[in-house]
Amino acid sequence: LALDGSNWQKIDLFDFQTDIEGPVVEYMSQRCGGFLKDLSLRGCQSITDMALQTFAQQCRNIECLILSKCMEITDLTCDSLGKYSSHLKKLDLASCPKITDLSLKYLG
């Protein structure tokens, strides 16, 4: 059951492991695809735009995405989310120093 991505609609890695890197997020995106609706990567400081661009393309049904304290993400992540994540209702970008006002344009 754990390997079946349809069983994973909500994943919170903050309480589990915050030192994950991009390939883990990309793999998770491929496995969970359209089933994942809620993901918290809070404090995962190694996550980059590349992993989240793949995530946005694969997980188009995401509704809640917590990226607070993800220090490496930039406006490119928000550009991808704006293009592919039409179901997104909640996005937390608190304490993401590389996110600028341009992200509002991408998400608008």
From TrEMBL:
Keywords: Ubl conjugation pathway. The keyword Protease does not apply. Residues 36-103 form the F-box/LRR-repeat protein 15-like leucin rich repeat domain. The keyword Ion transport does not apply. Signal peptide: none annotated. GO terms for cellular component: cytoplasm. Pfam families: DUF7885 (PF25372). This is F-box/LRR-repeat protein 15-like leucin rich repeat domain-containing protein. It comes from Arion vulgaris.
